[in-house]
Amino acid sequence: MTFAEPYWLLMLLLLPVLIYFYRRASFQRHVTLQVSRQAAMKGVKTWVVYARSWLQAVRWLVLVLLILAMARPQLLWYEEKTEAEAIDILLVMDISPSMLTKDFSPDRLTVAKEVANSFVARRPFDRLGLVAFSGGAFTQCPLTNDRRLLQGFINNLQVGKLKDGTAIGMGIATAVHHLKDSPAPSRVVILLTDGENNAGAIGPVQAAEMAESLGVRIYTVGIGKEGVVLSPSYRNPNGTYAFAPREMTFDSTLLVQVSSLSQGRFFRAYSPDDLRTIYTEIDQLEKAKITISRVAQNTELFFWLLDAAFCLLVLELFLRWGPLRVITV
Which stretches of 202-315 are assigned E, i.e. beta strand? Predict the structure, then answer.
């Protein structure tokens, strides 16, 4: 809070002087009554006597409020106007059965969804969408500015919605097709997978070439450990998966080639902490250009003081000329 005309506050320094001279004059105005014993006055004072002693204090308070109102107190705040050069980003996430592998706790897919949600929350100015792929691919959520909507779709990702397999090329191609008409100055695909490409009508390299021709940059993220890990071995009739130790391999060379073709980068995540670090790094690499202008605004508060002073003054006058009135003879 600030005062628009603070020099009026100097008048507050005069109040002690005014109070002094008023009290001095009041003693001269009152008649002194002498009695032989103090006990003779016992019971003379009533609530009216005590109340009248506070009436002048109300007037001093009214004067203080008026001086503060003349100083024009203001509540000062700033309005920020943000202009952002937004980026369109599509998250392409693997939902093949191998994403249930237990080398991440509780599994790869759960950790991937948590980290993706954190990434989405850190991009307030961009449009983001979601593509899921396994043996095929589909757009789970189109580009949107609604963070909660997208995070809801990410949380609902489940293994088994598509036929088994890992169609990396189809996932990339679906994302590129969605981004091809985007007017954003920068368009990005973040591909997360844990396996080798083994399905799909479009290969990863072909899809990366499509992305490069349209100016779409691809960041590829390989998740999971290699070697023997506890992974789904077959699917039960009720839709659940049975787990067994399996030898897992990873085709890093393919993902490096895909990212290089589109001027992107390849990352490898062996642990949940690695994955969080990777998304943080991508977040820094793909920052939007933001222009922020601050506009000062203020709210006048003096009328509240005037209202309070008026109400107190009316109350004081009502009491002074009503129940607390002094009749002189």
Answer: 216-223, 227-235, 241-248, 266-269, 289-300
Q: What SS3 state is found at 221?
A: strand
Q: How many CB atoms lie within 10 A of CB 38?
A: 7
Task: Please report how the helices 204-213 and 252-261 are oriented relative to each other, as an axis angle in degrees rounded to 10.
Answer: 20
- In sequence order, what are the beta bridge partners of 189? 90, 218
Interval 279-293 mean pLDDT: 76
> Both 168 and 195 in a single domain?
yes
Max Cα-Cα span within the chain? 118
How deeply is 13 buried, as exposed, middle or buried, from its count of CB atoms within 10 A (0-12, 13-18, 19+)?
Answer: exposed
Same domain, 252 and 150: yes
Structural domain boundaries enclosing 64 = 2-31+44-77+296-320
Distance of CA 171 to the CA centre of its chain: 31
pTM score above 0.85: no
pLDDT of residue 211: 94
Q: What are phi and psi of 76, to 5 degrees?
A: -100, 130
